[in-house]
């Protein structure tokens, strides 16, 4: 299907309406990422105001992750089958209403419920928005540029969430909950006018309800189990039985998808090496960063005694670097290809995390903390857009929502799993005295885990570089053996 904004012969210069459409989609993704990180700094104030225990407080974060990570597969397929525009706008409206609810509630359960609803709506806006871009912008330089802007908005939202939370919490924690509502409503109004209409996929008349139930249930239970494991114990009967149930649900899901005439996920897409590397890379990328952010914020506030605002400003260089590079990454992808940029990004992350191992009770910000933030900012600017481009390139329009949902699932589930692992490692190495030195000593093993996850992501990506090199050599040999007129020869595509 060809979008009305992307007809054959469209000029490289984008029309105002095309820019407007992209900005609406970027605003939604910015809010999705913002909501993941912004609540972190506000948690102590929420606990004090609503008289919440630590275990209840955890669910303000986990409730969002459960809704987001558990329903992404269903959200991506719904966008393909029901219409991307319809799914995106309805979910965006629900997100705005849930934000208003979260800002005015006076009890922990209601706040958790509002967070779950926001996560659920984000599970539909994220894959729908990404698939609108990939079906509106022609594959190649145009789409690469659009995706680089879109995904860096997500990375900027996640980074800037800490900064905004630090500022707003000084006024009231309710401000952090209410902020997304007016932005979402403005985006909804403009989206109604600008986003192109999309047809339902009428070639598929059936709905894979068994696959939707087992797939969604497995993701929900997996995220729930991982989040709870650090509290009830990784080796407890409850955790082990939950993981067993997850394995059975996933096995049932795979069996259903193999037999279904209208599968929720066409498993054949995972036969592509570049697709598998994109999914695993996304999990490692976001998982390592979430673990690092958790340790860094705890270290700066608990060990060094920095305020919420000071902590937020410490992360500002990373967010600023991502924001400034948003319009440039697309052209870099066109020149070097996604595998090289993903590898470079993971290399920056590994070096940045390793440098952060030098933290002490009296560190120099310029010599210890700032270099890590700049390297992580550069890594986010290169890696996140490239992963999205690699995952969606070469995929048919009617499966863009499915692949987008799968990629976002990898991101969220990877973040939940690795954060839980990092938290468990820190807890295992903790000390009862709670002194700053004891806390610092418990954080170092967690940083080692974060670094190892980033190294794993780098190794996964390096296999893609080797595959690409072999393919390029084969192309050169074919070109030499088959004479081609100079005026008709075309350059080799750099996309993976």
From TrEMBL:
InterPro entries: MFS, MFS_dom, MFS_trans_sf, Sugar_transporter_CS. Coiled coil: none annotated. Keywords: Antibiotic resistance, Cell membrane, Membrane, Transmembrane, Transmembrane helix, Transport. GO terms for cellular component: plasma membrane. GO terms for molecular function: transmembrane transporter activity. One of its GO terms (biological process) is response to antibiotic. Residues 21-469 form the Major facilitator superfamily (MFS) profile domain. It is a multi-pass membrane protein. It comes from the Bacteria. The chain crosses the membrane at residues 21-44, 56-75, 87-105, 117-137, 149-169, 175-195, 207-227, 239-256, 276-296, 308-329, 341-359, 365-384, 405-426, 446-465. It is found in: Cell membrane. The keyword Transmembrane helix applies. PANTHER family: BLR6921 PROTEIN (PTHR42718:SF46), MAJOR FACILITATOR SUPERFAMILY MULTIDRUG TRANSPORTER MFSC (PTHR42718). This is MFS transporter. The lineage of its organism: Bacteria, Bacillati, Actinomycetota, Actinomycetes, Kitasatosporales.
């Amino acid at each position: 299907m060809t979008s009305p904004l992307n007809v054959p012969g469209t000029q490289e210069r984008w029309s105002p309406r095309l820019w407007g459409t992209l900005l609406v989609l970027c605003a939604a993704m910015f809010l999705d990422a913002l909501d993941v990180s912004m609540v972190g700094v506000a948690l102590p104030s929420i606990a004090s105001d609503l008289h919440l225990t630590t275990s209840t407080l955890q669910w303000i974060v986990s409730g969002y992750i459960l809704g987001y990570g558990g329903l992404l597969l269903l959200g991506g397929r719904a966008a393909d089958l029901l219409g991307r525009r319809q799914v995106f706008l309805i979910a965006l409206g629900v997100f705005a209403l849930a934000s208003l609810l979260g800002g005015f509630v006076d009890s922990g359960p209601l706040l958790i419920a509002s967070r779950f609803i926001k996560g659920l709506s984000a599970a539909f806006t994220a894959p729908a928005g990404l698939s609108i871009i990939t079906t509106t912008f022609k594959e190649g330089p145009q789409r690469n540029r659009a995706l680089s802007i879109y995904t860096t908005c997500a990375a900027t939202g996640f980074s800037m969430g800490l900064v905004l939370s630090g500022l707003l919490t000084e006024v009231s924690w309710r401000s952090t909950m209410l902020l997304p509502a007016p932005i979402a409503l403005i985006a909804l109004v403009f989206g109604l006018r600008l986003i192109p209409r999309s047809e339902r996929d009428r070639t598929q008349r059936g709905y894979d309800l068994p696959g939707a139930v087992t797939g969604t249930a497995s993701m929900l239970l997996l995220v729930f189990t991982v989040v709870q494991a650090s509290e009830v114990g990784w080796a407890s009967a409850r955790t082990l039985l939950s993981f067993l149930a997850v394995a059975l649900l996933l096995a049932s899901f795979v069996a259903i998808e193999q037999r279904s005439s209208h599968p929720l996920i066409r498993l054949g897409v995972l036969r592509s090496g570049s697709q598998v590397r994109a999914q695993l890379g996304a999990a490692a990328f976001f998982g390592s960063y979430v673990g690092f952010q958790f340790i860094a914020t705890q270290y700066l506030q608990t060990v060094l005694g920095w305020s919420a605002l000071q902590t937020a400003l410490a992360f500002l260089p990373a967010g600023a670097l991502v924001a400034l590079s948003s319009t440039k990454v697309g052209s870099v992808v066109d020149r070097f290809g996604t595998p090289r940029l993903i590898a470079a990004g993971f290399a920056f992350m590994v070096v940045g995390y390793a440098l952060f191992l030098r933290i002490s009770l009296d560190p120099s910000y310029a010599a210890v903390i700032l270099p890590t933030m700049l390297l992580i900012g550069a890594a986010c600017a290169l890696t996140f857009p490239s992963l999205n481009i690699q995952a969606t390139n070469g995929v048919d329009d009617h499966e863009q929502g499915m692949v987008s949902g799968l990629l976002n699932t990898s991101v969220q589930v990877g973040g939940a799993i690795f954060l839980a692992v990092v938290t468990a490692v820190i807890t295992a190495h903790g000390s009862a005295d709670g002194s700053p030195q004891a806390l610092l000593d418990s954080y170092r093993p967690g940083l080692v885990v974060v670094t190892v996850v980033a190294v794993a992501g780098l190794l996964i990506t390096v296999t893609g570089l080797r595959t690409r090199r072999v393919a390029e050599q084969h192309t050169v040999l074919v070109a030499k053996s088959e004479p081609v007129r100079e005026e008709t020869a075309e350059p080799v595509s750099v996309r993976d």
